[in-house]
Amino acid sequence: MDLRHLRYFVAVAEELHFGRAAERLNMAQPPLSQAIRQLEGDLGVELLHRTTRRVELTDAGRGYLTRARKIIGEVAEAAHEARRVAAGAVGHLAIGCVGSATYSLLPAISRGLSVELPGVDFSFRGEMLVPDQAAALRTGAIDLALLRPPIADLSLTVLPLRRDRLVVAVPADHPLAARREVRVTDLSDADLIVHSADRRSVMYDVVLGLLRDAGVEPRIRHEVGETSTLITLVAGGLGAAVVPEPVTALALDGVAFRPLARPAVHVDLALAHRTGRTEPHLARAVSVIRRIV
């Protein structure tokens, strides 16, 4: 079925006049009349009853007009939807965040994405460790990840976002809370709370490397999977923790945050997605997140 013939028929059926319909379609009348006859021949029914004075719809023509209008409307809707998809204005994206990004960035990112991409449906998973994020990206369980490099996975594209300074979280009544800043060696006598080694946390490796480079043998009291749990245990007086500075957004009574003494130590934050993903709505989301961060 030729969509042009449908449009021609609708114009004639609405005008009930070939001359006016031809003007509406910006075409000559003979080709229009020929197109309608071809349509009737293809269908095997008469759609229009013509006399020298007037044009009338047959019963078949009235039924066909209803369906033709619907088809043309649906084609127009499909074209509009295709343009929106091509522009990255619709779709669904799941975003996984490491703990520190969950508290410090997720509110701003969710607001920014909802404002700039209102037609895209977003879902968020917080408190994810990097190995879990990488696995979820590979399987498609999430589409984007705010994570802490390094990540050695050639199937993922990793885009640097920023560097975050490390700080020390201590119980508010801890002697170190009275310091303006804390040296790494000051942690030699402190019980420590760290992210889980069993779940291959990037922060576990960062913190242990920092301590050992300073000649401090770590005295680990607890290993946890979630940043919120880590800070809660600090608030409970169970130990100190070295965390990225954005974790200070998770303000809890009983916790004091102090910067590490210079030279300052930083950890990277990056945005990752599976290599080869080229959907316009994903590209637009990446652009929005990079601008916000």
From TrEMBL:
Transmembrane segments: none annotated. PROSITE patterns: HTH_LYSR (PS50931). Keywords: DNA-binding, Transcription, Transcription regulation. The keyword DNA-binding applies. Signal peptide: none annotated. Gene3D superfamilies: Periplasmic binding protein-like II (3.40.190.10), Winged helix-like DNA-binding domain superfamily/Winged helix DNA-binding domain (1.10.10.10). CDD domains: PBP2_LTTR_aromatics_like (cd08414). The keyword Lipoprotein does not apply. GO terms for molecular function: DNA binding; DNA-binding transcription factor activity. GO terms for cellular component: protein-DNA complex. Residues 1-58 form the HTH lysR-type domain. Belongs to the LysR transcriptional regulatory family. This is DNA-binding transcriptional LysR family regulator.
